[in-house]
Design brief:
Elements: E1 41-44, E2 47-49, H1 57-89, H2 96-106, H3 118-128, H4 140-152, H5 162-171, H6 178-194, H7 197-207, H8 216-225, H9 234-241, H10 256-272, H11 278-285, H12 289-292
Antiparallel strand pairs: 1-2
Helix pairs in contact: 2-7, 3-9, 3-10, 5-6, 5-7, 9-10, 10-11
């Protein structure tokens, strides 16, 4: 007579027991049978087999996923509501051109100045806002990164578009508090909706400060290189575009090392964005700084 113990065990005579049916979805011979997974097998020969309980991992993972998705949706909705309130609370950007004219006049700059040359525009957008020609006034990725930084207390900065930088110069007196930056985000969208991109570049070039008392692109081009903006070479355009974040620190006349470093950075960005080939970049960087500023002091009439 065959003695039957737990599935897979042998009876007293060494005869194998009749295996219990496998749980649906498990291969034959699985460690746990359908019965073993749901109940304790009766004792045989003085011991009982206690199966390990199964956890519903898939159900738990689905619940976690749905909760995460719900949290994201809530955050997005709250962000949209907050942004709508911010848009309503900030002034119109319809007077931006007037404000730019007032600032230019205060610094003895003709407004509007000459058209922004293609080389300077390419250098400026490559280093300051490479999505300028496709974004809606703000870089959504950068805004999310900065917002996360404020929430976590890490203070992650950077990523301001040219629209935001222009709003900073025209509307918030160059300030960068969290409140000011929030206002700049809303105004950047309004600038995008109100003015074409060439006008944004024009206003930016006419009010930006380039150090050494030079306001606007024309003063800077003549003051540092002795040429009109339309005659800027690639290395000269790159050097000026690199100065807008630190005009006093990157002045090529007083801090040539810093200016050269910024020029190299902008030239690298021009290569990365496809505006220059590596050969053109190498040729631009081969021009000595002393040659670039040889005619500094103003444009001849």
């Amino acid at each position: 007579m065959t003695m039957r113990g737990p599935a897979g065990d042998a009876g007293s005579r060494g005869d194998p027991t009749i295996p219990l049916p496998a749980r649906p979805g498990e291969p034959p011979g699985s460690e746990y049978s359908y019965v073993a997974a749901t109940a304790t097998v009766p004792a045989a020969h003085g011991y009982a087999y206690q199966p390990r309980a199964r956890r519903p991992r898939r159900r738990r993972a689905r619940r976690v996923l749905w909760r995460l998705l719900g949290a994201v949706v809530v955050l997005v909705l709250l962000g949209l509501v907050a942004f709508g309130g911010l848009m309503a609370a900030t002034p119109s950007a319809g007077n931006a051109s007037q404000l730019a004219a007032e600032q230019a006049s205060a610094h003895h700059v003709t407004y509007p100045g000459p058209p922004v040359p293609a080389r300077f525009a390419a250098a400026l957008t490559a280093t300051e806002d490479w999505r300028f020609y496709s974004e809606p006034g703000i870089d959504l990725y950068a805004v999310a990164r900065v917002g996360f930084g404020y929430i976590t207390g890490h203070g992650i900065g950077g990523g301001a578009t040219l629209y935001q930088q222009l709003a900073k110069m025209l509307y918030t007196n160059g300030q960068s508090s969290p409140t000011d930056e929030a206002e700049q985000v809303a105004l950047a969208v309004k600038l995008y909706l109100t003015y074409p991109r060439p006008k944004i570049l024009q206003m930016y070039a006419d009010v930006a400060y380039f150090g050494d008392g030079n306001y606007g692109l024309t003063q800077a081009s003549c003051g540092y290189f002795g040429v009109e903006p339309s005659r800027l070479s690639w290395p000269q355009a790159a050097m000026l575009a690199g100065m807008v974040q630190g005009p006093s620190m990157d002045d090529p006349l007083t801090h040539p090392g810093n200016a050269r470093t910024r020029e190299e950075h902008v030239i690298g960005r021009l290569v990365a964005t496809g505006k220059l080939t590596q050969a053109q970049a190498s040729a631009a960087l081969a021009v000595p700084l002393s040659s670039l500023v040889a005619n500094a002091g103003g444009c001849s009439q």
